[in-house]
Design a protein that fits this description.
The structure holds two protein chains of two kinds. By secondary structure, chain A is mostly beta strands. Helix content of chain A is 0%, strand content 50%. Chain A has no helices and twelve strands. In chain A, strands 2, 5, 6, 10, 11 and 12 form a six-stranded mixed beta sheet that branches. In chain A, strands 3-9-8-7 form a four-stranded antiparallel beta sheet, with no helix packed on it. Chain A has a two-stranded antiparallel ribbon with strand order 1-4. Chain A starts with a strand and ends with a strand. Chain B is mainly beta. Chain B is built from no helices and eleven strands. The mean pLDDT of chain B is 90. Classes of the chains: A mainly beta, B mainly beta. The interface between A and B is medium-sized, with 27 and 31 residues.
């Protein structure tokens, strides 16, 4: 089926360290998957962080980057230097651009950034 | 100010009863959705609506009935509640042109956490 698997949390890093949260996807019924990272900051609703709809392309936002790799079916989230304000839960997600926004989410990875 | 309002934030119900979860969005979007997240499970798509019409339904049970009285409202009625219905229910919205540039850019509410005893 269609699914997403991501790094199990919590992930704890110190401020200014680098970060990678792994995400792999399975898109058996979706011909052209769209890939997303969503984020939920404490006390806020889930919101889109970045999205990439074309294989081989990279998306970036707020210092985070993710590259859509069709060969390895991966969409890892990276940041060179995290800040305490990046502490949140990050969700990798898979969608079908031709469907009605039915999006498949991963379990979420809690990121804790220590000062 | 929150642009997607869900009420109530928390509710407790007894098995067999009925509850309505309220969702209003003030983003001017044309599409609204319900997602559910049970304990230790990923966020799961339930319904999508566009211009108050049902577009997609991935919920097997007819006990879950969305209700859209206005373009910016999508309530969720749940009847004959069961303990397995315990979850946090998230409403979302988007400005959709199905398959277009906005696809996948959903805006979520903070959720309504339902506990069924």
């Amino acid at each position: 089926g269609d699914s997403v698997t991501q790094t199990e949390g919590p992930v704890t890093v110190s401020e200014s360290e680098s970060l990678i949260i792994n995400c792999t996807y399975s898109a058996t019924s979706i011909a052209y998957p769209n890939l997303f990272w969503y984020v939920r900051y404490p006390g806020e609703g889930l919101q889109l962080l970045l999205k990439v709809i074309t294989a081989g392309q990279k998306g970036s936002s707020r210092g985070f980057e993710a590259t859509y790799n069709k060969e390895t079916t991966s969409f890892h989230l990276q940041k060179a230097s995290v800040q305490e304000s990046d502490s949140a839960v990050y969700y990798c997600a898979l969608g079908d651009g031709n469907s009605n926004n039915r999006i498949f989410f991963g379990d979420g990875t809690q990121l804790v950034v220590k000062p | 100010d929150p642009k997607i309002i869900q009420k109530p934030k928390y509710l407790v119900a007894v098995t067999g009863s009925e509850k309505i979860l309220i969702c209003e969005q003030y983003l001017g979007h044309n599409a609204m959705y319900w997602y559910r997240q049970s304990a230790k499970k990923p966020l799961e798509f339930m319904f999508s609506y566009s211009y108050q019409k049902l577009m997609d339904n991935q919920t097997a049970s007819s006990r879950f009935q969305p209700q859209s009285s206005k373009k910016n409202h999508l309530d969720l009625q749940i009847t004959a509640l069961k303990p397995d219905d315990s979850a946090t229910y998230f409403c979302a919205s988007s400005q959709e042109d199905w398959g277009g540039a906005n696809t996948g850019q959903l805006y979520f509410g903070e959720g309504s956490k339902l506990t069924v005893l």
